[in-house]
C-alpha cells in the first residue's frame, strides 16, 4: 500500500494498492483520467517531442500533467515529507528521461531492466517517451545510501542515465502513468549491496530544530491563507532554499514546495531538483529567520 494524491498541488493523502494501480490505475477518477493521460501524450508527441518548442508550449504541457493523480511509491505517509513515512512499501522508484539518453532505444532498455530479478515494475512515463520503475529494496531505513548504490548498479547493467534526485527522494511523487506492455513482478527479490560497515551512523544525521519547525509552520499558515508568492524574486527564492536546507536538510523540500506553490511558474519537479541540489552542495548556513524577513517585504 502507498499514499496517493489527486494532483501535484494537493496535500490530501489517500491509501491505494500499489500493484492494482500499476496494472490498471483507477484512483480518484475511476478510468476517466486515462483520457487525460492520452491527451498529455498526444500533445507531447505533437509539440515537444522534437525539442523545438516554445516556453508557452512547455508550460501548457506541465499544466496538463499537473492535473493527473500522483502517488508516493516508497510507502504510506502522513504528510508530503520524508520524516512522515508511516509504513514503507519496500520499493524504491527510478526514472529515465528520454532527453538524458539521446539515441538510446529505451524500449530495449525496458526489457533489459525486466531481466533483473530485483525489478518489480518498469513501464512508460507520462510523456510516453521515458521510463520509470520500481526496485524492491532490503532496508528502507538507509534509503538514500542504498539508492546511490542501486543507481550505480542499474547504470552499469543498462548503460542508461537515471534521474538521481527522483530515486533518492523518499517522499518523491510519481505521476500516475499507464503502459499496457509494462513489466510487473510483485515478487521481485530485494536489492542489497550495503554491508553493515557502509550503513550511516545514526548520530551522523543533522538534528531537527523544533523551534525552526514551529516558526516556519506559523509563517506558512499566513502565506497559504493569503496565497502570497514570496518566491517571485529568484535570488530570494534561492536564499529561502538555503535557509530550509540549513534547518531541515532534505526534509526542507516539503516546505520549499509549499512556499513555492503560489508562483505563476510553479513546477514541483523543478523545485525538487533545485532544492536537493542546494542541500547536497550547501557551503554556508542561512538562518530560517531569512525566510520571515523575505516574507515581511510582501505584507506591505
Account of the protein in words:
The model is unreliable at 194-208 (pLDDT under 50). The protein is globular and about 55 Å long. The protein is built from eleven helices and ten strands. By secondary structure, the chain is α+β, with helices and mostly antiparallel strands. It starts with a strand and ends with a helix. The protein folds into two domains: 2-198, no CATH class; 210-296, no CATH class. It is 42% helix and 13% strand. Helix 8 packs antiparallel against helix 11 and helix 9 packs across helix 10. The longest helix has 17 residues, at 210-226. It has helices at 18-23, 33-48, 55-65, 106-114, 143-158, 164-168, 210-226, 234-248, 253-260, 268-281, 289-296, and strands at residues 2-5, 14-16, 70-72, 75-77, 85-88, 91-96, 119-124, 131-136, 174-175, 183-184. The chain has a four-stranded antiparallel β-sheet.
Distance between the termini: 46 Å
What number is the mean pLDDT? 84
Please write the string of helix (H) and strand (E) elements. EEHHHEEEEHEEHHEEHHHHH
- The assigned structural class equals alpha+beta
Strand order of the largest sheet: 2-1-3-9
Please tell me what the overall shape is.
globular
How many strand elements? 10
Radius of gyration: 19 Å
Number of domains: 2
Secondary structure: helix percent: 40-55%
Share in β-strands? 5-15%
Instruction: List unreliable stretches of 5+ residues.
Output: 194-208
How many separate helices?
A: 11
